[in-house]
Write a structure and sequence with these properties.
With 538 residues, the protein is α+β, with helices and mostly antiparallel strands. It has 13 helices and 14 strands. It has helices spanning 9-21, 36-64, 69-119, 122-147, 154-176, 180-208, 221-249, 254-303, 307-332, 339-362, 365-393, 449-455, 511-517, and strands spanning 413-419, 424-427, 430-433, 439-441, 444-448, 459-463, 468-473, 476-481, 486-489, 492-495, 501-503, 506-510, 521-525, 530-536. The protein has a 5-stranded antiparallel beta sheet, sandwiched between helices. A hairpin with a 4-residue loop joins β1 and β2. The longest helix has 51 residues, at 69-119.
């Protein structure tokens, strides 16, 4: 969907800047990215995000009937074993066994969905979709609610797990239709959602067992920085690896994957800007642009059997790029991350990408996927090291007033429910009566802007002289005009695709466009017209 092609750099700013605004000098807790609670958050986020990758690949590769389909499924099972071990470390063997029993149905169903669609078995497809979207989330949601003693409510867990399963299916169905732009936008959203789920689950566990985690907290400015960098680097590794491989294959999604790699670089540049200003961001962008270009060129060179170009590009990726970026990071962090260390780990990362690629095209899928798993984990190590260096360099920006005795309530999932033709608006457990209703018009779902904005914590302004509506959400400013099919996002024009209209004296805007722009997941049920929005609130 064209509306999803919005560059997501604002997301990084939303994550980083509010945390920095919490900085205080009086009665503050010293910032530290390496705490037991932070480690739990990082571990769960890594396991869940990797799970999403393997689940999405398993479904797609089973449908495609490719040689590595079984290997992808095996990696999904290995990931489940790692999650089982994490559950065991907290809830013991009985809890781990119960978790594993519930989870085994999910990775089998993920493969079965791809097979059912491939074979045109509509009955099995419907059964598997129901299992994945309803039964599995409910069963696992109830387990998590009970295990965490309600600190992560079963209903909330069920909703976000269902949203996760929908992310996988949205990616899959968009991909097989050939809508690669939509497919990879769904993939990126789904990957990021798993980090949010990891944060919420870690917060519930730490609140339940504070002594197990040295009375540290999950959500702090320093921990948020670590989480953002981990996430950006991990998904970068995925898109870089896929860029090289898909270019080699000459696959129809090759350019789309490369564009996602570039978008990811833009998000990293925005993060750099929030810390080191425009000059630092510009320098970072200039250095980084060579990497995603060379990643594509490597696949093309090998495809064309151009050994000269292949050798040149490999040298750029394994030597020149890590050295230049390593020196930049060493200087930028005031040598809190030494240039030599940064260079060394960046070279190891680039070697991971190439080892995955060369083993894959040789047909050694088991080794390729094991390299991929190690490379994915390395990105979290790099993210943590970089976050640690930045926090040491500028502790005043990441000093938190949150104390161990305070509940980390900012990791809660927020749920908003509404329905076509209904005036009810439910935010978590609070019900409000609107004076108008959501409605369908020209195949678009519209929602009263003021109620939606208040529901997601934004502020709405109205200028009657020129029919202008302004919405302030965090650091973002959205501007709409009645009757216009475009808007401004932080002074950048964006096409909406349908006009903003007035109904019952209220300004109405396309629901999915504005909510997904602001990072909310939208689940619209055609059967009853219900709309559920979910987001992990910082």
């Amino acid at each position: 969907m064209k509306l999803k092609k919005i560059v997501a750099t604002a997301i990084v700013t939303v994550l980083l800047v509010p945390s920095m605004a919490m900085a205080a000098n009086n009665g503050a807790v010293n910032p530290n990215v390496r705490t037991p609670a932070s480690d739990l958050r990082a571990t769960l986020s890594q396991l869940l995000s990797t799970h999403f990758e393997y689940q999405a690949l398993t479904t797609l590769k089973e449908y495609q009937g490719v040689m590595d389909a079984e290997t992808a499924k095996n990696m999904l099972e290995k990931n489940a074993d790692e999650m089982k071990a994490a559950v065991k470390s907290i809830y013991g063997q009985a809890g781990a066994d119960q978790f594993a029993e519930i989870f085994s149905s999910q990775y089998n169903d993920s493969a079965d969905l791809g097979s059912a669609v491939k074979n045109g078995n509509a009955t099995q497809e419907a059964e598997v979709k129901k299992d994945l979207l309803q039964e599995f989330p409910t069963e696992l949601g109830n387990f998590l609610g009970t295990a965490t003693a309600g600190n992560l409510p079963a209903a909330t867990a069920t909703q976000v797990l269902s949203a996760h399963e929908k992310d996988v299916q949205d990616f899959f169905y968009s991909y097989i239709k050939g809508d690669y732009d939509a497919a990879y936008e769904h993939f990126t959203v789904g990957f990021k959602r798993m980090s949010d789920i990891g944060t919420a689950l870690a917060g519930a566990i730490v609140k339940q067992f504070p002594e197990k985690f040295d009375n540290t907290v999950v959500v702090t400015p320093a921990n948020d920085l670590r989480a953002v960098l981990d996430q950006l680097l991990a998904i970068h590794f995925f898109y870089q690896s896929m860029t090289t491989l898909e270019q080699y294959k000459g696959a129809p999604d090759a350019e789309t994957v490369r564009e996602q790699l570039e978008k990811n670089a833009n998000e990293m540049s925005a993060a750099v800007k929030s810390l080191y200003g425009q000059a630092g961001a510009d320098q970072f962008t200039q250095i980084f642009s060579s990497q995603y270009s060379n990643s594509a060129d490597l696949g093309i060179a090998v495809k064309n059997n151009d050994m000269t170009q292949e050798g040149k590009v490999k040298m750029e990726l394994l030597q020149n790029f890590p050295t230049v970026l390593g020196n930049f990071l060493g200087t930028a962090t005031g040598d809190n991350l030494p240039a030599a260390t940064a260079t060394q780990v960046l070279k190891a990362h680039e070697q991971d990408v190439q080892d995955y690629f060369y083993n894959y095209i040789k047909g050694d899928y088991e080794k390729a996927y094991n390299v991929f798993a190690a490379g994915d984990k390395r990105m979290y190590v790099i993210g943590t090291a970089l976050a640690d260096a930045i926090v040491q360099q500028m502790p005043e920006k990441f000093t938190s007033q949150v104390t161990p005795s305070q509940p980390a309530s900012s990791n809660n999932m927020t749920t908003i429910w509404m329905k076509i033709g209904s005036k009810q608006l439910i935010i978590n457990d609070k019900t409000t009566q609107m004076d108008t209703t959501p409605f369908l018009w020209n195949n678009w779902t519209f929602i009263p802007l003021r109620y939606l904005s208040e529901g997601i914590g934004a502020q709405v302004g109205w200028d009657a002289s020129n029919d202008t509506i302004t919405v302030k959400a965090g650091d973002d400013t959205l501007t709409f005009w009645i009757g216009k099919d475009y808007m401004m996002v932080n002074n950048v024009k964006k096409e909406i695709g349908t006009p903003v209209i007035i109904k019952d004296g209220r300004t109405a805007v396309p629901l999915r466009f504005i909510t997904e722009l602001l990072g909310w997941h939208v689940d619209f049920q055609k059967a009853d017209g219900s709309i559920t929005l979910t987001k992990a609130m910082k």
